[in-house]
Amino acid sequence: MIFRKCSAGYEITLFRAPYGVAEMGVLKPKGRFCVVVMGKMVYDGDDFPKAEKRLVNACKKYHKPDEKQHGRMKLGKSKIIDRKLVEAEIG
Fold this sequence. Notes:
Layout: E1 2-5, E2 12-16, E3 33-37, E4 40-45, H1 48-62, E5 79-81, E6 84-87
Antiparallel strand pairs: 1-2, 2-3, 3-4, 5-6
């Protein structure tokens, strides 16, 4: 299942494996989480913070300077809409 996507629309996705990864054409992951960047799996493991860090780093690589970076999700303080982190702080 898709857990989080790039907020700028790039093909950067964090999956809760193995659900939904097959649609991306990626081999079955061995861990609970995997990160797929432009069709290639760049992380496969059980550590969510490491997976999220890979997603954030990939977003930094592909985002243009004028596109907002949200960084890591902050439990209880982040807002996610359509699996995209859209706001770092909730008012």
